[in-house]
Structure formats: structure tokens, C-alpha cells
Amino acid sequence: MKKMILSIAIALVSFGAFAQTYKNEVKLNILNVIVRPSVELGYEYYLDDNQSVEGELMFLDKFSYWPKGDGKFSATSIKVGYNYYFDSSDAVGFYINPFLKTRFGKYTEEKTKEDNTKYDEETNMAAFIIGVGVGYTWVFNSKFVVAPYANLGRNFSSEVNKRFWAVEPNAGVRLGFRF
User: Fold this and answer.
1) 67: number of CA atoms within 13 Å, CB side?
2) Which of 61, 1, 49, 56 lies closest to 23, judged by CA?
3) What is the pTM for the complete model shown?
4) Which of 48, 67, 102, 120 is 20–30 Å from 138 (CA)?
């Protein structure tokens, strides 16, 4: 009986210690807001101390595109990923992030015909992207997060790849809050 009570007490203490860690994080890629006029918002759920799943929504997605003309992007993307943190305490330090991303929207560029009449040429930005990223996470006061990262993804849309790079680099600085 004493062993059973001791086992239950140890389990409750262990559960209580795990429950005190924060399991959720909301985040913003501040680099996109500053460098490009786009907004990348995310949510991360921590499965345990060194792994999590995430979802991100990016409005005016145009990171990694360097077209020759001055066109207008009207695209949104949704990304889901898995993060593995190599430091096993509180999801801090170096991490790797395999992900899947889908994009929808269009890119419009003004063109001129031989007779000098102008027209808009549209590229459908619908794409499926597979990639991997790496980054480093710092946590301050157990709640505030600063995390620079870099991603590399492969775009599988032939229409998009005719106009833009098939391999998409992306970098950012994530600011987050854990709760």
C-alpha cells in the first residue's frame, strides 16, 4: 500500500511540474513587418520540453520572390510544421523545423504590347511547398520569446516556377509570448 501511495504521489508531483510549463505560444515574424509589407502570425503548441507543432498564416505572402518587374502580390499562405528542439529543457536553443505550406492568390504585373498598349499579366500563385528550417530560441522571464530562423522550401507549382524561383529561401525573427 505504501508503494502505491508513493507511486501516486510521485506521479502527481511529476504531472504538476510538467503542468507549470507553458504549452502555447503566439508569435509574429517582426522581420516581415519591417522589411516587407507582409504579416506572418503563428501559434505553437508544445508537446513536451523539446518538440512542438505549429501553424502559421501569412498575409501578402511575397517573401522569397524577386521578380524583374514591379508587380503586385495578393497571396496568402498557410504553413504547418513540427519543431524539434535539441536542448531538452523548455523548448529553447537550436531547433529544426520540417514543414508543409500551401499558398493561394495571384501576382499581377503590368506589361506593354508591341503597339504600346498596356495590360495586366496575372500569375496564379497557388502552390504546395515542402521545406525545412533551422533556428535558435531564447526565452525571457519564461514567457517572452525571440527566435531568429531561416527556411528553405521547394515549390511544386509549375506556373509559379515559370515566373519565380522553385526553391524559396525565407528568414525571420519571431517574437512570441508563451502562456
Assistant:
1) 17
2) 49
3) 0.81
4) 102
Give the list of residues 6+ apart from residue 27 with CB closer than 8 angstroms, or none: 41, 42, 43, 44, 145, 147, 174, 175, 176, 177
The percent of the chain in helix, strand and coil, each rounded to the nearest 5, is 15, 60, 25
CB-CB contact of 134 with 148 (8 Å) = no
Q: What gap in Å lies between CA 81 and CA 102, rounded to an integer?
A: 12
| Amino acid in the structure at residue 152 | L
Q: Which triple of cell numbers denotes residue 162?
A: 515559370
Torsion, CA 8, CA 11, CA 15, CA 17, rounded to 10 = 110
Q: Which is it for strands 39-48 and 51-59: parallel, antiparallel or unpaired?
A: antiparallel
In DSSP terms, which residues pair with 146 in a beta bridge? 138, 175
Residue type, 22: Y
Backbone angles phi, psi at 65, to 5 degrees: -110, 125
pLDDT digits (tens, 9 = 90+) for 28-75: 999 988 887 789 999 999 999 899 999 999 998 875 655 556 788 889
